[in-house]
Amino acid sequence: MSDQPFDQNTIMGTPAVDADHSSRRHAEVSGTYRAVVLVASTRAAAGRYPDKSGPTAVSMIREAGHECVDPIVVADGEPLRAQMQHFLRDLPVGQRPDLLVTSGGTGLMPDDLTPELTREFLDRQLPGVMHAIWAAGLEHLRTAGLSRGEVGVAGRTLVVNLPGSGGGVQDGMSVVLPLLDHVFQQLNGHRDAGHRSPAADESVATPVAGFQPSGVQGDHPVDRANSVVVSARVTEEPLDAATVQATAASETTGAVVGFSGLIRNHDAGRSVTELDYTAHPTASTVLQRVCEEVSQEFPGVRVVAEHRIGRLGVGDSAMEVAVAASHRKIAFQVCDALVDRIKERVPIWKEQHLEDGTHEWVNL
Predict the structure, then answer these.
(1) Distances (CA, A) of 117 to 108, 220, 229, 320
(2) Strand 72-74 and strand 34-40: pairing?
(3) pLDDT tens digits, residue range 123-156?
(4) H/E element holding 293?
(5) Beta strands per DSSP E along the chain
(6) pTM over cut 0.70
């Protein structure tokens, strides 16, 4: 990845920038990546219908804070192979995208050959990610399992095949985007997959106002290490505080502070029976970004944040946050800051059902 913008002129032509491998590596672990979206559709390439899947993917990538040129629409088969050859092989290593997403060509039509073409370029496959994409799709469409996509790495580029529908792209990108930092940490050889690499940037994260590292934490390298977002997700599954806190803990952390946001049976003097939580399609991406932002402000912490959506009853947990650190004061401080920012920034809304049969939206 280059520190320069990923210019449209790199498409099947002369690269617009001339970045070396070291600058690419530094940017990869900073949490901002360059992406390309290839739309495989013979009909869309011929102008017979407007493609919507490509713009959906580009919008979600940009919303997540990454760089992405406008979608490139090509016919199925050889035109798609030529573009993949260009971005994954012909460009200098430092000019290649970090993420290459294709949409379309994953079905059973005679010219649906995107997975076969993709396998020609992959060095290693990631079947678990593809299974996660299928699972996300099956929550909305029973035919989602018919998609024959591939996910893997070609050199230092993550390649993802998605269906040619807007909904399929939304489901797939909601799975892939939160994984990018972990993927590139591992590609850079760091086992503790978080959002930054000490090897790439030894500087200590800038603390927020009121935080004095020397007064709270010790001088051990662990206390000055770059922080890690262990997990950040939006889910319909029940949340478990003990599991979340155990996930945040490690051998280097002496304190784990957790927050459980529980459903209470009252609000402003009225009796509440249950709540419905609804999330915007970008909620998972925004949650990941918020966790990364907070963790960058505090060195040496491990963060886990989960938010539940769907119908919740009184006593259920709607949000679990856990922060692990060497010392309790910093863990308390980070947990408090993170919960506040999640409530302010993550697009999740709740509808309260009251005992008198009425209901109302909160924080909409």
Answers:
(1) 14, 50, 34, 42
(2) parallel
(3) 999 988 988 898 887 887 777 777 789 999 998 8
(4) helix 283-297
(5) 34-40, 67-68, 72-74, 99-103, 124-125, 151-154, 157-162, 228-235, 255-262, 266-267, 270-279, 302-308, 310-313, 317-325, 348-354, 359-362
(6) no
